[in-house]
Amino acid sequence: MLRGGGLNLNVVNFLFLFLAIVLHRTPRNLLYSLNEAIKGGAGIVIQFPFYAGIMAIMVQSGLAESMSEWLVSFATATSLPLLVVYQRRDCESFRPFRRGPVGRSGAGNVTCRSGARG
């Protein structure tokens, strides 16, 4: 019995992308079909899984946590909010489709605030 495997959102996304590639036979056919189906959003649909993977690598490798720890090492309660904005901007620069530097800073704020000096 295989342990640790399971059906989750990443597996479902991978399966849909894999099936789309196989069933369309060529990348050109896939991109044409996507463009016809969703017009302006085809690039986002194709690129999203890759950039989500980049963010997952940053988190799983510890890079995101290292950046947060480095930030906390010299942040004060007064300077932390601005520094978090800068740090999130740097993390988000790896993703082309983002909501801005503070759009996804919740977890980073919690991590940083737990270790900030007063």
UniProtKB/TrEMBL annotation:
What domain of life does the UniProt record list for this protein's source? Answer: Bacteria
Xref: InterPro entries: SCFA_transpt_AtoE (IPR006160)
Kindly indicate whether the keyword Transcription belongs to this entry. Answer: no
Q: Got a GO cellular component term for this one? A: plasma membrane
Which keywords belong to this entry? Membrane, Transmembrane, Transmembrane helix
Bilayer-crossing regions: 6-23, 44-64, 70-86
Q: Which Pfam families does the record cross-reference, listed alphabetically?
A: SCFA_trans (PF02667)
Disulfide bond is among the record's keywords: no
Q: What is this protein called?
A: Transporter
